[in-house]
Amino acid sequence: MYHTYLIKYGEIGIKGNNRHVFEDALVKRIKEALTPVDGEFNITKERGRIYVHCEGDWDPDETVEALQHVFGIVGICPVEVCPADSYESLRDGMLAYVKNEHPGSDETFKVKVRRPNKDFPMKSPDVEAELGHDILENFPAMTVDVHHPQILFDVEIRDVAYIYSKIIPGPGGMPVGTNGRAMLCLSGGIDSPVAGYMIAKRGVTIDAVYFHAPPYTSERARQKVVDLARIVSRYSGPIRLHVVNFTDIQLYIYDQCPHEELTIIMRRYMMRIAEHFAKEDNDLGIITGESIGQVASQTMQSLLCTNAVCTLPVYRPLIGFDKEEIVRISKKIGTFETSILPYEDCCTIFVAKHPVTRPILSVIERSETHLTEKIDQMVEEAISTTETILVQ
Ligand code: ATP
Ligand code: MG
């Protein structure tokens, strides 16, 4: 059982002077992700490396699972830590490691040594040769292959030495908190949680807004959205979720506007309200789960009409994805099972039999003039009665 994990991170390594900002964000997210895991975790930072040291009663599987939710991590390596005071210490550490991790192995191997600690008395190639020699002597079934080894033993000689050969893949991406924030329009469907995940993966902090229509949509439908936000928050960190009561607006649109335009007009009001909260939360954009042509409200013409009410950029990370591709990601990130629970969505309750698929902006805008009498007040009411919850 190893007490230390070496955290490998990718893209953030190339950020020059901003590097410490990225590393600090990564450390912060690692701490957050490990908070619900039993055990004590001490996270240390050395140039180009982050280590998680585990103490107390900790569960390695849970620890690795939590780390696999932290964007910015490309690899999690369980490491053997041994003193770096002499070659003999390294050798003993290495032999113990091979015995534990590769018992009875007849595979090919190579040893790769890095030596940031220049006080260590031997040069890296010499340490590689000596360790290779000692492994061969103690594990005669193993052989050396320097070109295509089945096992690569990495040794890093710092104040202490770190030995590892296994890299558990992390989620990649960039640490959340390094790229501003954005407002996710989160419904109970398959797409929007995936959209939120994808933008968070680029380092963006996520806020969210959900429109419900009680009593047409149930408490269970609302809870489902909270549950989805919670699953996404395992990756993104805590999410501020605004739950907007959209019933009166929806009914008013239903009364005043042509039914085939209902969905588009409704979507325009959702975006207006989403933008209100986005600005309040200092968000730099809005995120949706839209994909071209998926439904009538996502044709190019429909997207143009919806987009026209926004002044903030609208990010649609799924825009070119087929449904199967989106489903694949939702299964991978763990939202799929919750997304397919059959509770009604506020969009589906008032859908027209034949929604327009090629809406014309000027026509939609003209239809919206039928709402002028009451709509501003209703939007204000919806905003002022919105419930905001912190999901984590
Ligand atoms: P999803 O699977 O994400 O629900 P969908 O295929 O059902 O998407 P639409 O209902 O047209 O598509 O919604 C398109 C996008 O609009 C959603 O991905 C989401 O970002 C946003 N959206 C739709 N309904 C709501 C809602 N009730 N609350 C918040 N955002 C919503
Ligand atoms: Mg939906």
List the helices and strands and how they pair.
Blueprint: E1 4-9, H1 19-34, E2 40-46, E3 49-55, H2 60-67, E4 73-83, H3 87-101, E5 108-114, H4 124-138, E6 143-144, E7 151-157, E8 160-164, E9 168-169, E10 181-185, H5 191-201, E11 205-212, H6 219-236, E12 239-245, H7 247-256, H8 262-280, E13 286-287, H9 300-307, E14 314-315, H10 323-333, H11 336-339, H12 346-349, H13 361-368, H14 375-384, E15 387-391
Task: Based on the model shown, name its key terms.
392 residues; alpha/beta; nine-stranded mixed beta sheet; six-stranded mixed beta sheet; elongated; binds magnesium ion
Describe this structure in words.
This protein is an alpha/beta fold and 392 residues long. Helices cover 40% and strands 21% of the residues. It is built from 14 helices and 15 strands. The chain has helices at 19-34, 60-67, 87-101, 124-138, 191-201, 219-236, 247-256, 262-280, 300-307, 323-333, 336-339, 346-349, 361-368, 375-384, and strands spanning 4-9, 40-46, 49-55, 73-83, 108-114, 143-144, 151-157, 160-164, 168-169, 181-185, 205-212, 239-245, 286-287, 314-315, 387-391. The strands form two sheets. Strands 1, 2, 3, 4, 5, 6, 7, 8 and 9 form a nine-stranded mixed beta sheet that branches. Strands 14-13-10-11-12-15 form a six-stranded mixed beta sheet. A hairpin with a 2-residue loop joins strand 2 (40-46) and strand 3 (49-55). It is elongated, with a radius of gyration of 27 Å. The relative contact order is 0.12. Magnesium ion is lined by residues 187, 189, 345, 347.
